[in-house]
């Protein structure tokens, strides 16, 4: 397995966002020194997926014959009838990192490990984290409170500490971390990488439509609601988006639809028409290139490191 962390200039992963992350974002992220990712379900067909994989591998190729790190996200829930076909293409194009979501990571592990890739399991609670660790995953992506889209309920810092009690593999934490200061704090607390989705929603390379990007720029944390009333799983939604489609956010939690993660149909329509964001939405103030966003994160990350300098004087003191 590749040492992905040493190939990055900043410990950040542009989270794979449904109907938002595509080849342009993955390539821009990789070129900027972070790990880019996309869900295979963003492609309408298997043929489209192969074209995306070709574009990414070519776009991240370096002059010395290497390929910069990148990742794909596979939904392993039983309703995803296309999993086997998508996995076959993953085995062909060999992304260094495969993130599984909404199901057990077991269906993909043999194929990914066969070519030396790393399997990271999306988990939203400790029960899921323990099961994934027992299955032998290489890493855990801990989805915490404040994440956009399907979200968790645990504090990122509490989640990190609890997982580190039993897991020493790659740990990615995500949820409401929207600037480089938060990235530095998460790494100091024990995370290896930080999932960031909302920060890239309004990027120029995002597949989000113009109105979605503008709503993200214009919204803040008070414009969010967490509800399972759309997909059957708790997710963080932009209230103005729900209202625009005749949905009353204040009564949404009384609805409990069946979970469905099939690559197409009503599931796609829900996410296409209704827009999600995380608690870091207030920090997105403009539509900008991924590279510029990463530059700002890097500057903030370095500033955060200097904030710890005055406390080094405590070393060797009576209180150390």
Automatic annotation (TrEMBL):
Gene Ontology molecular-function annotations: monooxygenase activity
Q: Which InterPro entries match?
A: Aldolase_TIM (IPR013785), NMO (IPR004136)
Keywords of the record, alphabetical order, are: Flavoprotein, FMN, Monooxygenase, Oxidoreductase
**Record bears the keyword Ribosomal protein:** no
Domain of life (superkingdom): Bacteria
**Family assignment?**
Belongs to the nitronate monooxygenase family. NMO class I subfamily.
| Protein name from the UniProt record | Nitronate monooxygenase family protein
Q: List the source organism.
A: Gordonia alkaliphila
């Amino acid at each position: 397995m590749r040492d992905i962390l040493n190939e990055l200039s900043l410990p950040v992963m542009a989270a794979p966002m449904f109907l938002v992350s595509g080849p342009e974002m993955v390539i821009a992220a990789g070129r900027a020194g972070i790990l880019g990712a996309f869900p295979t379900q963003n492609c309408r067909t298997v043929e489209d997926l192969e074209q995306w994989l070709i574009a990414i591998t070519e776009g991240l190729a370096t002059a010395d014959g290497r390929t910069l790190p990148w990742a794909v996200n596979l939904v392993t829930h039983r309703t995803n009838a296309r999993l086997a076909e998508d996995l076959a293409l993953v085995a062909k194009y060999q992304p260094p990192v495969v993130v599984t979501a909404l199901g057990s990571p077991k269906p993909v592990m043999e194929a990914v490990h066969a070519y030396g890739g790393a399997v990271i399991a999306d988990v939203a609670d400790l029960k899921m984290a323990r099961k994934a660790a027992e299955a032998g995953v290489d890493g855990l992506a801990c989805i915490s409170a404040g994440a956009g889209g399907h979200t968790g309920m645990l504090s990122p810092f509490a989640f990190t500490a609890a997982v580190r009690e039993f897991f020493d593999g790659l740990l990615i934490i995500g949820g409401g971390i929207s600037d480089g200061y938060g990235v530095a704090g998460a790494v100091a607390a024990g995370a290896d990488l930080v999932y960031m989705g909302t920060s890239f929603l309004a990027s120029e390379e995002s597949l989000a439509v113009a109105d979605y990007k503008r709503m993200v720029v214009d919204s803040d944390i008070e414009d969010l609601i967490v509800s399972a009333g759309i997909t059957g799983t708790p997710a963080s939604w932009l209230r103005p988006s729900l209202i625009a489609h005749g949905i009353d956010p204040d009564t949404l939690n009384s609805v409990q639809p069946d979970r469905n993660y099939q690559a197409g149909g009503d599931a796609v329509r829900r996410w296409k028409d209704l827009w999600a964001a995380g608690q870091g939405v207030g920090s997105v103030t403009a539509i900008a290139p991924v590279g510029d966003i990463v530059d700002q994160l890097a500057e903030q990350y370095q500033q955060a490191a200097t904030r710890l300098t005055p406390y080094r004087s405590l070393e060797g003191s009576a209180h150390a």
